Amino acid sequence: MTTTTVRDDTARALAGGEAPRRWGAWYIAEHRIRAMKGYAGDALFQSFGNPLIYLFALGVGLASLVPQGVGDVSYLQFVAPALMATAAMTVTANETSYPIMMGFKWNPIFYGMNASPITGGQIVSGMMIHIALRAFVTVAIYFGIIVLFGAVPSALGWLSIGTATLTGMAIGVLISTYTSTIEEDRGQMAMLQRFGIMPLFLFSGTFFPLEQLPVWLQPIGWISPLWHGTEIGRVLTYGAAEPLWLTVTHVGYLATLFIVGLWATRKHFVRRLNK
């Protein structure tokens, strides 16, 4: 009788761990979404406020100083896809910097998660699902606002929501690959913003065509995920002319960065949680 009871308890315990083993990533994503309740208002305000401020300041204010536009399009149409991709980058950069370090150091919740049947790889996948959803919503709101501004003349413009989200995720996983290895805060996040995110924002053809930069600065744009995402956005939102092979290269570059960055982040999480 005792043996049967033990077996039943063991079976129930194994069954109880089956769902986390199978759906652990979605449990983590749900946890992160629920945790947003504390700052959902601020996130929503930023999702609406940032595009309005940027579009008025750059697309309307600065555009009045660039009346001839860029090529055959207005300056507003030129800069809007870049700002949308930048919004995705900002969201993913914020979510893959301090929150990851906090999960290991200041509020080491990752260790508690890993003590359950949920693996380090599932923790990463769940966090990336949450980040992708947040970036997608932010970009979708941004897209709706630039449509109201008349900056999306192409019928394919809605596809730029997906490419901008991919751009943000490609940058985010590169950041998480680094932040998942940091054990002590010595100002690395501030340095990352100053010497990583800011140069991408300034030298990725955001405000003017990359060709207008000095030749020695243009390679920064070529390797910048933001430039690749911005160029795809311009093709989709107003039909910027470029060879098909170049558009495919943009997408392939971003997808490769995302896959490699996700693999590296998972590797760092698993190693750090199990050492």
Outline, from the CA principal axes? globular
Helix fraction by DSSP (H/I, runs of at least 4): over 70%
Number of domains: 1
Extract low-pLDDT stretches.
none
**Biggest beta sheet summary:** none
Span of the ends, CA to CA:
40 Å
Rg calc: 22 Å
Helix count equals 11
Mean pLDDT: 84
Total count of strands? 0
Structural class: mainly alpha
Write a concise synopsis of the structure shown:
This protein is 75% helix and 0% strand. By secondary structure, the chain is an all-alpha fold.
Task: Give the arrangement of secondary structure elements.
Elements: H1 2-35, H2 40-61, H3 75-95, H4 98-104, H5 109-115, H6 120-148, H7 160-179, H8 188-202, H9 218-223, H10 225-238, H11 244-273
Helix pairs in contact: 1-6, 2-3, 2-6, 3-6, 3-7, 3-10, 6-7, 6-11, 7-10, 7-11, 10-11
Descriptive notes:
- With 275 residues, the protein is mainly α.
- It has one domain (24-273).
- It contains eleven helices and no strands.
- It has helices at 2-35, 40-61, 75-95, 98-104, 109-115, 120-148, 160-179, 188-202, 218-223, 225-238, 244-273.
- Helix 6 runs antiparallel to helix 11 (244-273) and helix 7 runs parallel beside helix 11 (244-273).
- The chain is globular.
- The model has no long low-confidence stretch (mean pLDDT 84).
What labels describe this entry?
mainly alpha, 275 residues
